[in-house]
Amino acid sequence: MPTTKARERRRRRLRTAGVLLALATVVGGGGYLALVQLDSSEVLVRERCTAVVGEDTYELRPDQAAHASTIAAVAVTRGLPARAASIALATAVQESGLRNLDYGDMAGPDSRGLFQQRPSQGWGSEEQVQDPVYAAGAFYDVLVTVPDYESMPITEAAQQVQRSAYPDAYADHEPEGRAFASALTGQSPASLNCVLREPATAGNPEAVTASFAAAFPGLSVESSGGEVAASASGSYGWAAAQWAVANAQGLGITSVSYAGLLWDRSEGGWNAAETETGRVLITVAAPAA
User: Fold this and answer.
1) Of 60, 71, 192, 278, which has fewest CB within 10 angstroms of its CB?
2) b/e map 142-160, b = 16+ CB within 10 Å
3) Which residues lie closer than 8 Å to 272 by C-beta, 6 or more apart?
4) What is the pLDDT of residue 261?
5) Which candidate, 222, 223, 214, 268, places its Cα nearest to that of 243?
6) Over the stretch 13-45, which tens digit does the pLDDT of each residue have?
7) Which of 227, 60, 220, 80 is nearest to 140 (CA)?
């Protein structure tokens, strides 16, 4: 028969087990409620933009994708092949991580922008090389003077333009450069997708129109209410449509439609839809009620 001390020890163990079970129930329930709240508030959404080529998928942050779309748009408006955009994108990834930097490194302290172009080396003023449209144009101005750049390995073509101390590094970014170039020049329709949270503020149709016109100066762009429309067809239209998706985060864009497909920010993908022929239609976030 258990002694008095043994019975007391047993009661203490039972009380301790009961307290621990109650705590586990409270903590577990609270954790579940917290997780539900996180899901509903979109905190767990990891914002990203992807380009798919065949079975391969490559990823950029939305701000990087926006810069990539500008670089590709400049190639498109100049009538350059997608290969030119591939070379430029691989170069910009290596030089700046597709960030519009306002500083250089020890080797080039005055280097600036997406391509780390140096004003002291004749690339333009500091302000100019930090304008992504100008910087991409300056890169292509030199690239097109390189004989047979389209058939060269990307690393060799990039080095002909950049004269880098690390020429082999450009090759490391060839796959993603090719994938995003194919999407953003319109060669691969509906292959660019961005997963984004809901806009925190209303979009500005005028800002979208101005940015669109800067990237594609040859397109006819108009805005009405919360929509922006551009007349375009074929791969040029797909370049414009996927440019809009790549810039959706920064410009408060909620949907883009073209050629029978619709990209919807809330769904994060392209789906079949009724669209107007030869027209890219962009919708921006409405002001809060």
Assistant:
1) 278
2) ebeebeebbebebbbbbbb
3) 260, 261, 262
4) 97
5) 214
6) 444 444 333 333 333 443 333 333 334 445 677
7) 80
| Type of residue found at 20 | L
Q: Is the dihedral of CA 176, 177, 179, 185 positive or negative?
A: positive
Cα–Cα distance between 239 and 72 in angstroms, integer?
Answer: 8
Write the pLDDT tens digit of every residue in 64-88: 999 999 999 999 999 999 999 999 9
Query: Could you tell me the two tokens for 168?
Result: 């082999």
Spatial distance between the Cα atoms of 200 and 253, rounded to a whole number of angstroms: 11
Q: Helix crossing, 62-77 with 174-184: angle to 10°?
A: 60
Burial 88-117 (b: 16+ CB within 10 A, else e): bbbbbbbbbebebbeeeeeebeebbbbbbb
User: CA 219 to CA 176: how far, in whole Å?
Assistant: 27
Instruction: Say which residue the tokens 């509903």 belong to.
Output: 40
Break the chain into its structural domains and give their ranges. 49-184, 200-284
Distance of CA 21 to the CA centre of its chain: 47
Tokens of 274: 């009724």
Q: Give the dihedral of Cα atoms 183, 184, 185, 187; nearest 10 deg.
A: 10
Pair 136, 114: CB distance under 8 Å: yes
pLDDT of residue 25: 38
Q: Is it the case that residue 245 has pLDDT exceeding 60?
A: yes
